[in-house]
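Changelog excerpt: complex records now keep ligands as SMILES alongside chain sequences, and the structure block spans every component. Example after the change:
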Amino acid sequence: MSNIETLIEGLGDLGIELSVKQKEHFIKYKDLLKEWNEKINITAITDDIEIDIKHFLDSLTPIITKLFEGKKKIIDIGTGGGFPGLPLKIFNNELQVTLLDSLNKRIIFLNEVIKALELKNIDAIHGRAEEFGRTPKYREQYDICISRAVASLDTLSEYSLPFVKVGGYFISMKGSEVDEELKEAEKGIKLLGGKILKKEIVRIPNSDIIHSLIIIHKIQETPTKYPRGGGKPKKNPL
Ligand SMILES: C[S@@+](CC[C@H](N)C(=O)[O-])C[C@H]1O[C@@H](n2cnc3c(N)ncnc32)[C@H](O)[C@@H]1O
């Protein structure tokens, strides 16, 4: 059975105590992550302490924004092994979560975790963000779109902002050096109906790792021509 002492300690530093059930969920999730990672490539991080810091605690840093309280509807773009969407769901079971990734084997893994943890109001779906963002079922349906380690902010904004309702937020989890990327994405974010609210600097508890959360407010509908197809958001960012 996996150890989650570093996670428990790190959250303790923030004054947060996990329930028995939440602890069981994180342990089971970590067990499955390590087991599946031997068969398919999900993550390069496999050590108990590193998983706690670089996956679980890092995924939970957005809770400092207070935006993840209550029954929010959120989508995690390019979720990979479920980060940050799945730890956020374990933390606040009221969240209604969509996990999206273009690699089906990772979605199969996530569905196994969802089943093993008996989580409700969470879906793992296979596909590309720039395609789902054009369909009525997903477009402008979410209070929050969040993403970590998927693309540069200009490209990622075109993938992400179409999912967000007017009045909602797009949160991009980035490293500490993000100013250049922010500057390059500014014009596109405006075209997509967003407004950069702030850059929140966060230290991952129980570590010296500094990251930033870019918080973008959706103030207008995204024009229907976005997201563009044919790989344009990546090849030719706005
Ligand atoms: C480096 S991994 C990051 C995974 C996870 N967010 C994390 O931080 O551990 C990037 C993930 O984004 C997915 N991805 C890349 N482009 C995508 C797109 N256009 N739509 C959906 N998923 C995408 C990849 O399949 C991969 O699983």
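The longest helix spans residues 20-37. The radius of gyration is 17 Å.
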